[in-house]
Amino acid sequence: MGAMFRSEEMALCQLFIQPEAAYLSVSELGETGTVQFRDLNGDVNYFQRKFVNEVRRCDEMERKLRYIEAEVRKDGVPVADNLTELPRAPNPREIIDLEAHLEKTENEILELSHNAVNLKSNYLELTELRHVLEKTQVFFTENQGSLLLLYQQEEANDSITRALINEEPQNQNATVRGRLEFVAGVINRERVPAFERMLWRISRGNVFLRQAELEKPLEDPSTGNEIYKTAFVAFFQGEQLKSRIKKVCSGFHASLYPCPNTNSERLEMVKGVRTRLEDLNLVLNQTQDHRQRVLHNVAKELPNWSIMVRKMKAIYHTMNLFNMDVSKKCLIGECWVPVADLAIVQNCLTEGSRLCGNSIPSFLNVIHTDEDPPTFNRTNKFTRGFQNLIDAYGVASYREANPALYTIITFPFLFSIMFGDAGHGLLMAIFGLYMVIWEKKLSTKKTNNEIWNIFFGGRYIILLMGLFSIYTGIIYNDVFSKSVNVFGSSWIAKYNYSTLQHNHHLQLNPNQEGYKQVPYPMGLDPAWMVAENKIIFLNSYKMKLSIIFGVVHMVFGVCMSVVNIVHFKKYASLLLEFLPQLLFLILLFFYMVMLMFIKWILYGATEEDVKYQPTCAPSVLITFINMMLFKHSKVADGCSEYMFDGQSELQKICVFAALLCVPVMLFGKPLYTVFAKKKPGRTMANGSASQDIELQPEGFPVIPAIAGGEKADHEDEAFSEVMIHQAIHTIEYVLSTISHTASYLRLWALSLAHAQLSEVLWSMVLNKGLAAEDGDYISSIKLFVAFGAWALFTLAILVMMEGLSAFLHTLRLHWVEFMSKFYEGHGYPFQPFCFKTIFDTEDAEE
Fold first, then answer.
1. Pick the CATH number of 117-164+177-285 from 3.50.30.10, 3.40.50.880, 3.30.70.2750, 3.40.50.2000
2. Which phi and psi (to 5°) does residue 356 adopt?
């Protein structure tokens, strides 16, 4: 947890690696994920870098893997997506073997695919031919009369034509026409109407077309999709018309097949086609079985191949960031490394040199610099969700105090104040506990559902929000909008039953004779839940709690700035910024909080003094307004405007002292900057003079803390700019103390809205089923339906929608009201070279 207090200390290092050991060394660094490399070739075109050819080879292997994977998934072969242990990047000597193996596998699958397409094409042609022969057999036996009629009609048309042009047949034998010819084939079903119209137009109605749809769809050899076709036979006469018909068939992509003229020849041909289809089907089955065996063997190795190629590509991409020294015998890289991981980086370099058998060791140097390092907060699966909430607002500046440590408690607590219902909190805690217990199983299931991924990433946040909501629900004595009577009530009603039953306006006296009032052991007294002034009481109670927690939260945020001031050694800000800000907040708003506690302690129904009776208790809000405006309010006889002696003088001192804090905040830091520049002998350091300190095996040098905020301290700015900046900052802080205090009233508002909505849902839905007075069966059905509706609305509205609303309001209270007091968030994240991170990012993009 100490690493959560502020970001890790970082060091800028130079890596000196032998070219032979560079690949394996970078591979070891990628497995550990401890370094963030910098690009030393920013001015060099990417295609001119040293290892661009290796990256292209990896791209080509990735292309082959994508093709192989597509073929595997097309055949429905299962591929193991989740590996228990990721394989390491292959050695340089193994890369050639892997590349050759992928080439061989791709060629084998390509050959199998081409053979399968050719066989399926032949099978499709034979199938179409069989259908054509079978359909034409029916056409020839059933349509002889239609053919004869067509023949006679053609002769009559020719006779009429000759008579019109006064031609006599030169030869009587010329009137004897030749026999009809035909063309048979198959065509796609959706093209049949257009095909039929086109034949009619080119032949002027002299083509007799018969067609029959194929009952079963055929398979496209290339895509495997189903295609529906129709067999047709076109009867015509003349060679010229025959050529026209064939051109139309070619234009409509119709497949023409030879069909014998005689019946016996057609039957013999059908028998031969069926025999060939059976043989071809046997060959297709054997080919498919062999393809399945090959693809199953490939599917077992495909995830490992993909991981290895992706690691190789990432390694060569990283090596392209390195620079070559003058002698071209050493690769030089620069990287940011957490100081705690320097030994791990050195071990990775040593292991890389050992694996390649290189006798010359690789080493690293630490470079002292004034450049802002990246921010790295080491997290685990519990703290990662809270850290993501902070980073969503802005990454912390280097070595700045990290709010995520305190958010672990304050976030679910403020959420529970708004969500305070023990029943709804229990549902949320059960959901969070389910994701926590089964997190290993659920994390292995990759899904594209963004909502589920968000919920699972914040499973520990949901669990804590549910547990805290159970606690605040007990304090509010609110379980699904109903109270629980565990300890009995502290109120005593000295009325008989009939009086209580028929009089709805009775008021219980908290100061009964012979009765000593005792506080309720825990939470709210259940008697308040049946009182008519419940809303008035809860409003006052929750509103005061909201102000109390809000002011304490803001005071804690202001105190957190001391951590940054001391660490960055801005001791002047301790007196010129922190102290006046804290005093301004305490003298005004924390004083108002103290008035609430004083009022709760001093005033009560059992007090003998009249001025401390509840009727004489002054309003805290009115008292605070009068304090700011120096006004007085009228009070009843025997009562006092103030709660204690000397309050008027104390309030004036608080107001004047708070007003004096404003000019200190406004002019203190700019004037200090002016006087600090006039000090003699002051030099400006631009970093440490020591460079390239080689790390020895016996130990690592101590890296001095880099004060990232020093150079942003307006030292080189003009006095007018510093003054304007400080004026904006001062006005913003003074006004924000008022607006932020009022903003914490959302704790009261959302808590009240959640409780009222839950009560309305109970009384308007579930209570209808419980109050049913029909027969036993009808009442049971009504209760069943009412409970289902109540449970649905409870989960959808009260838990999901209200929970999301309370979550967003809690997030705003932390981002704006709390973190604005001390958090800058001007840093940039530490993004180490890590294979797991690269794979997760690529999978998310896909």
1. 3.30.70.2750
2. -90, -5
